[in-house]
Amino acid sequence: MSLTGRRRFVQGNLVWLLATALALVLLDALTLELFFVVALIGFLVTLELATPVSVTPRWRRRLRWIVAVGLLVFGYIVVRRILVILPPGVLP
């Protein structure tokens, strides 16, 4: 069961990444930041959908570091965007 869960996760994540890249290219909105944010959302959704409810497999526990780093990078992107939006005199 663990191999099929892993395989479903990898396949779902690859489909999400390809669909995201294609959609952003078609919308002419492909930037690294936007791709990362949408890919992170898809990663978290496929991770939750591919994980069994009753037990936590070992392969899912290994992904905690990837999720943590992804959320840190997401926080950095949000802070950068907020600093760009703020008027020049707000921060010292």
Which keywords apply here?
92 residues, flat, transmembrane helix, transmembrane, mainly alpha, single chain, DUF8044, membrane
What does the model show?
- The protein is mainly alpha-helical and 92 residues long.
- The chain has one domain (2-85).
- Helix content is 76%, strand content 0%.
- It is built from four helices and no strands.
- The chain has helices at residues 2-26, 32-50, 58-61, 64-85.
- The chain is flat, with a radius of gyration of 17 Å.
Kindly summarize this structure in a few lines.
The protein is about 75% helix and about 0% strand. By secondary structure, it is an all-alpha fold. The chain has one domain (about 1-85).
Spatial gap, N to C terminus: 56 Å
Shape: flat
The profile of the biggest β sheet is: none
Helix content: over 70%
Q: Output the radius of gyration.
A: 17 Å
Order of helix and strand elements from N to C terminus: HHHH
Number of domains: 1
**Poorly predicted parts:** none
Measured by DSSP, the beta-strand proportion falls in under 5%
The count of helical stretches stands at: 4
Question: Would you tell me the overall average pLDDT?
Answer: 88
Q: What structural class is derived from the secondary structure elements?
A: mainly alpha
Number of strands: 0
Pfam families: DUF8044 (PF26161)
Transmembrane segments: 12-29, 35-53, 65-86
Keywords: Membrane, Transmembrane, Transmembrane helix
SSE order and pairing:
Elements lengths: L1 H25 L5 H19 L7 H4 L2 H22 L7
Helix pairs in contact: 1-2, 2-4
